[in-house]
Amino acid sequence: MRGLPVCTLFHPTHRGMFIIATKKNVRVFNLQKRELAIKKLETGLREISSMAIHPGGDNLIVGSKEGKMCWFDMDLSSKPYKTLKNHPKDITNVAFHRSYPLFASCSEDSTAYVFHGKVYSDLNENPLIVPLEILRGHSTSSNRGVLDCKFHPRQPWLFTAGADSVIKLYCH
């Protein structure tokens, strides 16, 4: 594997599965079987900035420094199921909600986007991705916008942290 790691994740349901993102690639390793790169995901992105895995473990979102976000169905293909271009600036983080069908991205453009992301148990059914809301409220500071976003573990609430030294809670 070339390049320094940008993000790392453990798989939520398969013990020993480890996911590493470098600037351009995402690789899945099986630590229990000591298998290197059992899967390589081809993002097609210039530079990866963040990633998050769906609680079910079969879907992954990858954010980039070009404002694009890729959704991977890891059982389906090593190429993105869908690429979304919502932010004009770098995506700083992406997140899935633990129990609601929600995911979000935040960016240097001082916005966060919230999406409905329904994953079906039927493997013949593609995930349903619907943009829900653009959250504004942070101001830019030193050319930086929203630095991080996290969902509340039980409620459909999104917390964002901005370069303006403000933490916001969005709930509907």
Automatic annotation (TrEMBL):
Q: Which lineage?
A: Eukaryota, Viridiplantae, Streptophyta, Embryophyta, Tracheophyta
Q: Pfam families per the record? A: WD40
Q: What's the protein called, per UniProt?
A: BOP1 N-terminal domain-containing protein
Give the domain of life. Answer: Eukaryota
The record's annotation in SUPFAM superfamilies points to: WD40 repeat-like
Q: Which PANTHER family match?
A: RIBOSOME BIOGENESIS PROTEIN BOP1, RIBOSOME BIOGENESIS PROTEIN BOP1 BLOCK OF PROLIFERATION 1 PROTEIN
